[in-house]
Prior knowledge:
Blueprint: H1 4-29, E1 34-40, H2 41-46, E2 58-63, E3 67-73, E4 78-84, H3 95-124, H4 134-161, H5 164-169, E5 178-185, H6 187-208, H7 228-232
Antiparallel strand pairs: 1-2, 1-5, 2-3, 3-4
Helix pairs in contact: 1-3, 1-6, 3-4, 4-6
Amino acid sequence: MPSLWKRITFSVASVLCIGSVVLLVVALSTERWVTGRILCKTGAEIVNASHPELEQFIGHIYYGLFQGGKTKRCGLGNRRSKIYIFPKLVQTINGGLHMMVILFLLVAVGFALVSLSFCIYNARKVPYQSIKGHKGLYLWNFIAALFGALGVLCFLAAVRHHSLTEKVANFREHLFILVVLDDSLDWSFWLGVASIATHFAICGVVAMSRIKLPKPEMKKPEEPTITALDMLY
């Protein structure tokens, strides 16, 4: 049976593993990986809009790994539409890179679950094999962090070097040309980054479990001393 200190540290590590899985699942399922502003270039050129009037042609866009939405302003009021990455849009963007992002994050979720199972095992039993103990936990968390980082970096490459936002904004736009004024990484993206940081925190907690705390010393009760004078009585 592990000591109380080890049970506490591995329980904390288990909670962090659950947190990492939750962060990745929420990041995968939400639509706020990127947010930005889009200008309806065609509408602005038709009316020859000057700088103050351009605000009437600026809309917004947001999207995640599976879907998103945009608000287009081309002089006909706000026109909102839903964006679905699959099955059509993924064929116009760098589909291989996009699938790698999803695959890497799913693998990271898998290894985070493996790390969770090993944390629970170490909190309940003392492993006989080193791979089931500290070394195994370091390995699983490193792999989970590695695949999470690869997924995040691939998505960052798609946004910055493959004009992902512009392609998403102009999908199925036959009459108007939309120009991306600015785009930024939103909270869904940073949840993925937080999940990576969580695995390093887990490694730190696992390392703390190897600290040996001093055991409290039990004072022995003093034995009564009998002197020769006591024997006389």
